[in-house]
Design goal:
This protein has four helices and nine strands. By secondary structure, it is an alpha/beta fold.
Length: 166
Amino acid sequence: MTLMNYKIPESVLVVIHTADLEVLLIERADKPGYWQSVTGSKDSVDELLIETARREVFEETGIRVGTLSLNKEADCGDVPADNLRDWHVSNIYEIYPVWRHRYAPGVTRNTEHVFGLRVPSDISIKLAPREHLNHMWLPYQEAADKCFSPSNAEAILQLPKFIDAS
């Protein structure tokens, strides 16, 4: 008998954006029509949130964060580590019933930590086909309107505040 690996109810939400406030949205493969930013749970309880954010961004978009070479030239698709910012915002929300089976019995709430990632406007996106069907870039207000998750929409609407704080 094998034990089921349950998701840890602590996750990241990464708002990927350009300098001119265009936001990347990705469409869920398991729920077509559900658009969101990059999200994902910690792989282990001791995984640092910044590492969760880096891993999820790479797994879901193909964007590598913080892997600059010594001569300051980025490998194709990379962005500097400094472009990934912890916004020090956390949301606690009720896990949608459709996804509760992924968590241990009785777990109904998740804590989500919000990050922003500034990328060049011409960056290449390579979706994980098992997770996402499509992607689009939208002005931040339109992106917020298209998100199915209220916490994701609110994070996107906060983007100008975090750009100004940089």
